[in-house]
Amino acid sequence: MIVEVEEAAGCSARRAGALGMGTFRYNQALGCFVRCQKVSASQAHFTMILIDPAIQTRFGRVVRRRALAGFLAEASAAARLAGDIPVLLTTDREIRRLNREFRHKDKATDVLSFPALEPVNGQEAQAGDLAVSVETAERQAAEAGHALFVELQVLVLHGVLHLAGYDHERDSGQMARKEATLRKRFGLGSGLIERSATAARTRPAQRRGSRQS
């Protein structure tokens, strides 16, 4: 089985074969070879968008993988990340499996970040991997009142910042400030950290209202 993907020019995919403009790379998450097609040669970062077959069937071109690959490269540069960043666009079911396997949390989520280990024996540097549930992104986009592609950008940016070493669960607001700065630069709406803070403020007010009624 071959899955269509997009990658920025220069991606260091190991060639397992060739077809047209692309190369093949085996992706363990999908359990198949993926065909990597080149995008803009002017992009400085090496990015690759992999699409789960179920997502490709359901959403098709709505995910705008070429544009998303370009955004990923820009976000990576803004976060000062170097190296390959494969992004898997997948289902709730698959991201739940990944969340359970790697974080021991048996539930679906919106985005997972997997920072890369230090390269050894001359291996090329890799910034890490991202996994995004397009199904969760679709629901969150509807709640936020913007397009699915905008939500995918929000999630990718959040994941990239985690790969860059930011951690909003442990820091003193550095990631929230950086995310807000970059969301403004890219023209994006509210991010995950801002939404979580808003929800946290809303819950106590709702509980007080229910006690008074």
What do these coordinates show?
The chain has 213 residues and is α/β, with parallel strands linked by helices. Helices cover 44% and strands 20% of the residues. An eight-stranded mixed beta sheet has the order 2-3-4-1-5-6-8-7, sandwiched between helices. Helix 2 packs parallel to helix 5, helix 4 packs across helix 5 and helix 5 crosses helix 6. The longest helix is centred in the last third of the chain and has 21 residues. The N terminus is likely disordered.
Strand order of the largest sheet: 2-3-4-1-5-6-8-7
Please report the distance between the alpha carbons of the first and last residues: 58 Å
- Count every beta strand, where a strand is a DSSP E run of 2 or more residues: 8
Helicity, as a percent range: 40-55%
Number of helices: 7
Largest sheet: 8 strands, mixed
- The helix-strand sequence is EEEEEHHEHEEHHHH
The helix-and-strand class reads alpha/beta
